[in-house]
Amino acid sequence: MREREFWELLEEVLGRVYGRSISRDMKLTALDDMTVVEALEAGVEPRIVWNVLCDQMDIPDAQRWGKDHVAPPLPAA
Q1: Residue 74 CB partners (closer than 8 Å, separation 6+)
Q2: How much is the pLDDT for 27?
C-alpha cells in the first residue's frame, strides 16, 4: 500500500473530515502512542498504520478495505 492509497482509504472508510482529524489527534497505542501522521512520517509502512488504526477503532475486516479495495499484501519481514 502506498501512502496515497492510505489517505484515499482513510477518507472512504472514515470520511474526509473525521478521518483527517483522527489522523492528527488519535494516539496509536500499538505504535508507541504516535499519531497516524507521526507514524507515516517516521517511516512506518502505511498498511501497518492502517491495520493498527482499524484495530484500535474496532473497524471490522469487512469494512476496513472499502468497497472497491482488496487488502494489499503484507510487507516482507
Answers
A1: 47
A2: 98
Give, in order, the Cα–Cα distances in Å from 49 to each of 37, 53. Answer: 9, 6
Whether residue 39 contacts residue 49, with contact meaning beta carbons closer than 8 Å, is answered with yes
- Chain centroid to CA 34: how far? 12
Specify the residue for cell string 502505511: 46
- At 24-66, the pLDDT tens digits run 999 999 999 999 999 999 999 999 999 999 999 999 888 888 7
**Distance, CA of 67 to CA of 59 (rounded, Å):** 14
Distance CA 46, CA 48 (A): 5
Residue type, 76: A
Please tell me the distance from the alpha carbon of residue 74 to that of residue 27, in angstroms, as a whole number.
Answer: 23
